[in-house]
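[job 0412] stage=fold_complex status=start
inputs:
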Amino acid sequence: MSSRNILFLKTTSRSMAILGIFQRDADKHTVLSSGQVVPDSARCIQCGICTYNCPVGIDVRAHAWRGEPVVHSQCLTCGECVARCPRGVLRFEQTDLFAKGKP
Amino acid sequence: MKYVIIGTGVAGIAAIEAIRSVFPSPDGRGQGEGSVEIVMVGDDPYGFYSRPGLAYYLTGELHDKALFPRTQDDYRRMNFRFVSGRVKNILREERVVEVEGKESLKYDRLLIAVGAQALPLEVPGATLEGVLKLDHMEDAKRILKQARRGKTAVVVGGGITALELTEGLLSRGMNVHYMLRGDRYWSNVLDEQESKIVEHRLHEEGVTLHRHAEIIEITGKNNRVNGVRLLNGKMLKCDLVAYAIGIRPRVELAKQAGLAIDRGISVNEYLQTDDPNVYAAGDVAQVYDPASGRSVLDSLWGPARQQGYAAGLNMAGKKTIYIKPPAFNVTRLAGITTTIIGMVGRGHDKDLMGIARGDSETWRRLPDSMVAQAGFEVNRIRLLVGERQLLGAVVMGDQKLSFPLERIVSENMDISPIRDKLLASNARIGDVIAEFWASLKN
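[job 0412] stage=fold_complex status=done
writing structure:
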């Protein structure tokens, strides 16, 4: 019962967030490799689910407090923090680094 | 200059950050005004942590330790002293804060940011062991401890916190009976469909919903809860009663000190009380809003942080007006991330006896508008369409459009070019908004 419910919460929020982000994005990998995680700090309540779930130990929450994108050499852009945030604070934003016509 | 901050919540932390932005650490000196000393004092033994995050600690998504955003190192860098204790008195003449069992604290500028607390459940038996609220970390730990001991829980209350209690207890394997005073969930903010979505999902997860249900007595044995008696005469056996029927600002200290009080501590747009050396911010403050000319309470984390920051700047001598942003809240209802923007509420306050946590009074004003809605199952948008502006929006599930909608509402953008499209029958309002947003960006 208990684990089932936790699983329910996790999988729902996760699949929803992923659906939400990638519904219209044909190529997920393009987004991941050329994107960065951007917080909307007005939504954030500093619960720390993002930091808690980051596989490489980035303090995503601290970025969300400052309203700064997660620019971190170790960020895998795996999307774990984006998917788990219960309040939709985090989203992927395309960095223009590899966009056409730019260096 | 001596700054004392009463309260360990987000408003207090933001105030310290603001003061330190004017008088940077580590030497605590700035602008030739001598040394700056900051003391934070509070009665929550856990200090600063994410109070809204307690909901996710209850569900088991988080460890309690993960709820603390700051390390000891961070606090050292912010350069303030923490005194753990209950403030007994504010002596305004002497500018001294008296702390129970601790030394008194002298201040030049004082911030009261002690927040709000749960309204008590006023029925016979409410003091029995196993009757629980969710204000602090300690409450959350108590809930988890009690949840391990029992099988059946009763939850009372109509807002976000009551639902978080329901979901938390459910995750911990309890059979949960959720009591609604009215005929549906959160009727002063959600519309019928939205309530239905939430209720349906709760039902699927095994929650038993009781509508038009009111507890008139909590029964017990050996000073422990063993059941509840309802208004309709029914008895229900349970091991735990958790309630969240509203909150009220903790104004006692300010009242004792003779500060001006209405429903909260009255402050002007600089977060200043009627004593120029004393400020208030966060859930305890009733803030004058120059835009509407009204004094309003807010009980959300975001505004508390912004008010605390503005108060801190003002205390440090940097005049800053706090401008109340349009009502905006994000929460998760039965697993569905939900954003509520601007004015969306209608109907009565059947479920809420005070200010609901995570509530904002602005939603309750009935807007003169029409309602357009679209969506399916858990991806749903509701827009309150005005003559030229969007007055409010509810976004459930997919949050892609909530960012543009937040901007469209808060910046009062002219939506007259798409108004008729939004109000047409079977309008695909998600697409209309997405196209409108894209056209604005180009």
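[job 0412] summary: Residues 2-98 of chain A form a domain with the Alpha-Beta Plaits fold (CATH 3.30.70).
[job 0412] exit 0
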